[in-house]
Amino acid sequence: MGETGTKRGRPRGFDRAAALEAATRLFWAHGYGATSIGELTGAMGIRPGSLYAAFGDKESLFREVVQNYGRSSAGGFIGVALREERTARGAVARILREAAVVYSDPSHPAGCLTISAATNVTPQDAAIEAFLRDLRTEGLAAMEARLRKAREDGELPADTDPRSLAAYFAAVVQGMSQRARDGATAAELTSTAELAMKAWPAPDTGSSEDSTLATG
After folding, report:
1. 81-127, pLDDT tens digit by residue?
2. Element (H, E) at 144
3. What is the radius of gyration, based on Cα positions, of the chain?
4. What is the Cα–Cα distance from 70 to 44, expressed in whole angstroms?
5. CA-CA distance, 136 to 203, in Å (whole number)?
6. Distance (Å, rounded) from C-alpha 191 to C-alpha 216?
7. Which of 23, 152, 157, 207 has the fewest Cβ atoms within 10 angstroms?
8. Which residue ranges carry the DNA-binding annotation (predicted)?
């Protein structure tokens, strides 16, 4: 009986995935605070009652959007690179290279949803601000852990500060997201990525390394 009540407000032929995709694009383009229920229901092709029946309130919808985004190629590439690349340098280079392409891709809103959606959050939406900040902090911690292991394995010099290095590359990624929203092209962002990789600490041996993004 509860299930019937949940579905009562949904229009015939309701496509949850399509509705979620429409909501994702709105939140991604305009941020959480600037996206209204009216805009959401209009883009999703449903009435307010249907939105609440299918997703709960606006905050619940946004949290589901972010979780879904994190599993997508546009939102999950950082974690994939950290897991898949053989070296930490290769992982960071891949993250920056892919960020340049993903953030400027014209097929979807520019930049990163979890970075841009946090703008213009009102005091009433402090829980959303904290939610997004926690996600970014988790990403920073994951990168720091990979860099710490790289130092332990001898890939990074013994005097490297993994926290500071991770924070630097996280700041570059966030800056690339904003530049993409300002209209930066993939070529410009790739150039930024290449320059950022020059900050990678030189090995203790003093041997030269290829400074291109492909090195890893």
Report:
1. 999 999 999 999 999 999 999 999 999 999 999 998 977 777 888 89
2. helix 126-152
3. 20
4. 20
5. 29
6. 18
7. 207
8. 36-55
